[in-house]
TrEMBL record:
Keywords from the named record: Membrane, Transmembrane, Transmembrane helix
Keyword Transmembrane helix in annotation: yes
Transmembrane segments: 35-56, 68-90, 102-121, 133-153, 165-189
Protein name, as recorded: Transporter
Organism: Nitratireductor mangrovi
Domain of life: Bacteria
Length: 197
């Protein structure tokens, strides 16, 4: 596992990429070890993700086998939604002409995703701790989601470094694959996530 100093450097690097600084890619370890170590970003994200899972589990009740089981299923779904599109992109990156950027995209994207999960924590906390504040939580969720999409696009553009059109294509493809995995697995496991409002 990367050291605390390395993790901090990677998160700062991701933030700089999200702010349109492509040179920040030098802050990442793009070796084979760095590639596999970037998946430790999932562990960094789990505490914040768990709040969202607990919130959804409390809202869907015990119909899916109990709250603990629901939290576990949501965890499996979220991790699959994180990883499976990257597996697909491993096969698609070369035909798309960005095979040489695959490792950098995965490494920076993993650390960037961990950072975004923490940025998206406040709405989940509001829903969990103040269930009567659903309208505020919904508005904040929408705002944070839009910001996270913009930051993800900027990270993608900085890492791909082949122009906005290609970056937009990669971004749209990865977003579509993530949504497809999420919806498919939620349906497969019989989890109906209630609307935030």
């Amino acid at each position: 596992m990367p050291s605390a100093e390395e993790i901090q450097s990677y998160l700062v690097g991701a933030w700089r990429l999200m702010n349109g600084k492509p040179e920040a890619i030098r802050m990442f370890d793009l070796s084979a070890d760095g590639f596999w170590n970037s998946f430790y970003a999932i562990l960094i994200a789990v505490p914040a993700l768990t709040v969202g899972w607990a919130t959804v589990a409390s809202e869907v009740g015990d119909g899916t086998g109990g709250r603990v089981a629901t939290v576990a299923l949501l965890g499996v779904i979220d991790i699959a939604t994180w990883v499976l599109p990257l597996v697909a992109f491993a096969f698609l990156s070369r035909p798309l002409g960005v095979g040489d950027r695959f490792v950098a995209y995965v490494v920076a994207g993993n650390w960037g995703s961990a950072l975004l999960v923490w940025i998206m924590l406040p709405p989940a906390l509001i829903r969990l701790v103040f269930p009567g504040w659903q309208d505020a939580a919904t508005l904040l969720s929408i705002a944070v989601f839009v910001v996270s999409l913009a930051l993800t696009w900027r990270l993608t553009n900085a890492v791909i470094d082949r122009g906005a059109a290609l970056a937009t294509g990669v971004f749209a493809l990865m977003l579509a694959m993530s949504i497809a995995v999420l919806v498919t697995l939620q349906g497969l496991f019989g989890i109906e996530v209630p609307a935030a409002g």
